[in-house]
Structures are given as C-alpha cells and as structure tokens.
Amino acid sequence: MKLVRENINFERGKEVKDTLGLGLSQFIAKGLEEMGQFSAGNDPNPLLVYKANKTQDQYDYTPEKYYIEISGHDFSSRKNIDKLIEKHLNLKFFSDISEESRMYHRWILWIKEDYAEVFLKANAINLKKTRIQESLDFERSTPYKSLRIGKYKPQHITIKDYEGDVHNIEVIDNSFKLYDLNVELKFHEDPDVGETADVYVDGEKSDMSVFKMTPADYEFKNQGEYADPGYTGYGLPIAKDKEHLEQLKDENSYWHVSSGDYSRGNKNPFVAVAEMVIYIY
Q: pLDDT under 70 in the chain at which residues?
C-alpha cells in the first residue's frame, strides 16, 4: 500500500502537492468534524471512518476498504456534496462518491487507498476528542449514579432535532415523552451481548436494538506509530495495568442504538434512543 506521508501540508480545495498549512491528519480530522455539523442527526459529532463489509453486494463496485457517509435534505444532489467536500476537505481524497439512499439523501464517500492510513489517524484524533467531551458533558449533566441495569433516577435531557429545535425531555421510571410519543426502555442482561434494552413506543415494542458497547481489551494497547503519545490507534488511553484497564473500559463504554441501516450512540441510553426516535418517527 502506498502511504501519504504525515508531513504533507495543504489548503482546502487545492492540489495536495501544491499547498501549505496544517498537518494532513489534523486537517482531515478538522474537516470531518466540520462536515459532521451538516449530516442529519450527527451534529455536533464528527463524521467517522468505517470499514466496508465486502461480503455485502452493494460494496462490490469499489476496491476501496474505507468510507465515510453523510446524509440530509441539503444533499439531494451530487453537486451539493462536492461543494461541501471542497469547502472542508478535498475531492482528491475520494475514489468514488455514490448515493446509497435517494429517500434519505445518504451518500457514501470512498476513501482512496493512498489516504486510508491518514484518515484512520484523523478518525482516532476525533474519537479521542469526542470521548473526552462526552465524558465531561455526561458528568456535568447526570444527577444520578453510574448507569446500571434497573430503574434510573429521574433526569432531564436536552436534544436537538434536524430543524434545530430544542427538546427538553424528562425521564421518569425509564420513560419519556417525545413529540406525542411515549417511549419506555426496559433494561435487561443478555448472556451474549451484555447490558441491553428493549424500546417500547406507545406500548408497542420497536425494532430498535439497544446495547452497551464496551471496548475490547486490545483497544487499550499501543497500536504503533499512528497513535498519539499515550493513546492507542483507536484514540483510547493506553491501559497501565489490569485495574486501570477495567476503569478505562467503564469510562469509554457507551450505549449503541440501531434500527435498519441507521444507528446512534451516546453515554446516556435515553439520549441515544431519543435521537433515534427523532430520526425514524
């Protein structure tokens, strides 16, 4: 694989070889963060880099392994996508840009193999920053003890929808009201998955899958030259010993919610579910 050297510098929209400015991975990290503000349901999180599952037929048309995705009503045409990329990144990073869902204006941006490593490093930079911020926000806004299975104490959460409207939600007995919908989470322990929950909307069990994501042990080990000092290639701190490892796993776990092709994640399960409700209802 041909790699792009980390010290290449450039400006947005210009030829990579002819430009000066920020380090490449830092530039990409900033661009992904800025573009995330325009993707439906993503703000304020950066766009993330995903690895394609090549067993899926829809990914057979490209040899590339990594991609980012973006969606929203502002991206009804390829022209709008190109303008966004040129403003915040560079079209030359991508080998192919394809519309995966016309209904939701969801686009897949395939990363050229030459830039895969620096995009992964940029991804690690943003994950590190996001996890730190989420942890701080969670500690400030959560008036109850650490999340665990059972009844959670009443709490107040605030989220934004795609129109920018703010919704103040009161969670009582693991239930809340959003729009005219009554939403309830029923937590339980799955022997294979771990901590999980069923979501009921107006008394009917939804198709949402909710479970707590806990990083694997290897994600806290040094991953080599592309990691920042003191952090792994996944943007996580390096565990010093077993006790520290368990502490880090707890601090960096979060709740993952998915429905169909869409997913959300947050330290707080009620925030993650509320964001998904806004997206699919």
A: 1-22, 40-44, 53-62, 73, 101-104, 130-153, 222-235
> 50 and 93: one domain?
yes
Residue that has been written with the tokens 């989220």 in this structure: 159
Are 174 and 152 spatial neighbours (Cβ–Cβ below 8 Å)? yes
187 and 214 belong to one structural domain: yes
Q: Which domain holds residue 187?
A: 130-280
Q: Which helix (H) or strand (E) holds 116?
A: helix 116-141
Give the distance, in angstroms, between the CA of residue 277 and the centroid of all CA atoms in the same chain: 17
Indicate whether 4 belongs to any domain.
no
The beta strands (E) that lie in the chain are given as 9-10, 22-23, 50-51, 66-71, 94-101, 106-111, 155-160, 166-171, 175-178, 181-190, 194-201, 204-205, 209-213, 254-259, 262-266
Phi, psi for 10 (deg, rounded to 5): -165, 175
- The distance from CA 149 to its chain's CA centroid, rounded to whole angstroms, is 24
Of the candidates 189, 188, 255, 248, the one whose C-alpha atom is nearest the C-alpha of residue 216 is 248
Tally Cβ neighbours within 10 Å of residue 209: 17
